[in-house]
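Bumping my old thread because nobody answered last time. Still need a sequence for this structure:
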């Protein structure tokens, strides 16, 4: 090609940002704001706005949904209160206070059997569509087929195990089942030093008939002996319910801050008094967490930051600890007594988690002090490979002042990493292989007018809350009446001749646009780092031509921007190569 030939540059198939300040690929932008890819038509376009739903009494810590009997119940955790949004989604919100005494930290929830369960680090609540109450634990039968003296009534040398169900951490109550001999009045329970009558007045059933303490029987709580006024008839079932408080048992679960579902059970972690412990409920019963159903992940004091189900195991991610592994995994294993157990095994990764993690479309990812990491593993989970996922945005993201409090939400195929008022979006549909053969995501970058402290996705809708109680939905074309400024900048183009100066062709420049009724789209050039304003046009035709005239430059960029929503498919620029660059 002769230096006087006309060169046409086309920029298209846009893929995301590149904040590395290195040689940026032609389909990425070194500087963009509030844009993302719309996969319905292939354009990159302005993000949705933030629509104010209402302002509640205090900082938003949780937003919960329960569909029951074709009615959608919406609850809001604001400050120390749990509110029911009775006229959702209308604004202003009409609310009913359901509970006070909530923890002032982010809460989480799950739905089981048409009941909403909520954890906040000090409470474990359930909501049935009408009332909220603390979870009342399932009462376990801790021994059965007993003789009145406490011995087994099963005549077998191989069947002498008296334990039927383990103690439930969520309740002080336990049941013992006996078979009456027709003579004995006294029945020996499987525990001593029981709770005082002022804590729990004991009950019993004899052949299905209710009996009451101090009326039908007396109790020696120190020895754990119940004495009936009359001996129950031979062969009938005697079921005695008593109370014995386990030291800190309920607090094991109440103080957990992390929660997830795995293998038809719910798992709990994040209790600062049990930094290594992961607890779980019984099969399909979130009200029953046996006192033996916990597992230690390490022996240090490094806190568990995230528990994430994925690839058939439960991943446990801990904060930085240079003395041992920071990644553990728990594998479902059959057990003769408890059916399923989940022994913990050390991973091969020592790089710790600084905030949180998530299963992002079967990719286990978490934030380290270097950015977003992904865990890849072979068929043997102990052979884990750490892969970096965020090199394109690390130069900006990891230096955010609130980076260690990042929050995550999946939305329309993106992983939204919220840090203050900034959002970094990992795109699950666009990936690339970096120089070390790691698979990474393409990224986009947003900024909100408000500092956001809470984010949640629910059935295709994204909700955002802040410290003053305002709750927003990602919707509309403005941020609660304020313009959404957005722009896309092409990479620094030297036309393939870095040693020569260039001059643009005044004509022949065309941009293909998405029709969004915007007549205020600007195009500017950035010539050797200096912004030069050019012209404004409309997207009414789906395309526009623009005239630019810049001379004797080394490299040039196009910048498209607007304070109204716009979409961009491609753009072109023409120019000539001139002489050598001089000193």
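Sorry it took so long. Here it is:
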């Amino acid at each position: 090609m002769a230096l006087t030939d006309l060169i046409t540059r086309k920029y298209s198939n846009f893929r995301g940002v590149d904040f590395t300040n290195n040689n940026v690929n032609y389909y990425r932008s070194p500087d963009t704001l509030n844009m993302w890819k719309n996969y319905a038509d292939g354009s990159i376009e302005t993000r949705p706005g933030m629509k104010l739903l209402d302002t509640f009494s205090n900082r938003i810590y949780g937003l919960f949904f329960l569909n029951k009997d074709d009615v959608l119940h919406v609850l809001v955790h604001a400050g120390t209160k749990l509110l029911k949004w009775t006229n959702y989604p209308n604004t202003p919100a009409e609310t009913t206070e359901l509970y006070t005494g909530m923890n002032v930290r982010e809460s989480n929830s799950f739905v089981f059997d048409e009941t909403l369960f909520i954890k906040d680090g000090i409470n474990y609540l359930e909501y049935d569509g009408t009332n909220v109450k603390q979870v009342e634990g399932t009462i376990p039968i801790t021994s059965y087929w007993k003789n009145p003296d406490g011995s087994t009534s099963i005549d077998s040398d191989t069947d002498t195990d008296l334990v039927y169900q383990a103690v439930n951490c969520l309740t002080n109550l336990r049941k013992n089942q006996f078979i009456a001999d027709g003579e004995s009045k006294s029945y020996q329970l499987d525990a001593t030093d029981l709770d005082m009558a002022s804590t729990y007045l004991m009950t019993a059933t004899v052949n299905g008939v209710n009996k009451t303490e101090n009326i039908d029987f007396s109790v020696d709580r120190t020895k754990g002996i119940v004495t009936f006024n009359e001996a129950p008839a031979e062969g009938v079932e005697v079921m005695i319910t008593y109370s014995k408080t386990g030291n800190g048992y309920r607090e094991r679960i109440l103080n957990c801050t992390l929660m997830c579902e795995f293998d038809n059970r719910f798992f709990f972690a994040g209790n600062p008094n049990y930094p290594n412990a992961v607890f779980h409920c019984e099969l399909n019963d979130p009200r029953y967490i046996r006192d033996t159903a916990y597992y230690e992940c390490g022996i240090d004091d490094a806190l568990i930051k995230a528990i994430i189900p994925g690839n058939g195991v439960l991943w446990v991610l801990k904060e930085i600890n240079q003395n041992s592994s920071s990644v553990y995994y728990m594998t479902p294993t059959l057990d003769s007594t408890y059916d399923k157990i989940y022994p913990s095994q050390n991973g091969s990764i020592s790089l710790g988690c600084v905030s949180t993690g998530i299963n992002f479309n079967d990719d286990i990812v978490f934030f380290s002090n270097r950015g977003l990491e992904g865990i890849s593993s072979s068929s043997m989970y102990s052979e884990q490979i750490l892969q970096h996922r965020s090199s394109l945005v690390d130069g900006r993201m990891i230096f955010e002042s609130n980076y260690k409090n990042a929050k995550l939400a999946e939305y329309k195929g993106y992983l939204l990493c919220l840090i203050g008022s900034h959002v970094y979006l990992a795109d699950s549909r666009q990936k690339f292989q970096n120089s070390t053969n790691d698979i990474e995501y393409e990224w986009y970058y947003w900024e909100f007018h408000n500092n956001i402290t809470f984010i949640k996705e629910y059935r295709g809708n994204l909700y955002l809350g802040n410290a003053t109680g305002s709750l927003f939905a990602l919707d509309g074309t403005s941020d609660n009446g304020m313009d959404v400024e957005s722009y896309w900048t092409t990479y620094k183009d030297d036309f393939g001749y870095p040693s020569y100066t260039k001059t643009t062709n005044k004509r022949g420049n065309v941009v293909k646009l998405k029709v969004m009724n915007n007549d205020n789209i600007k195009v500017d050039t950035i010539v050797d780092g200096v912004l030069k304003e050019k012209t404004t046009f409309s997207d009414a035709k789906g395309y526009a031509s623009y005239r630019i005239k810049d001379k004797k430059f080394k490299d040039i960029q196009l910048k498209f921007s607007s304070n109204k929503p716009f979409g961009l498919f491609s753009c072109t620029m023409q120019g000539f190569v001139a002489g050598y660059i001089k000193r």
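Residues 6-46+493-580 form a domain with the Jelly Rolls fold (CATH 2.60.120). Let me know if any region looks off to you.
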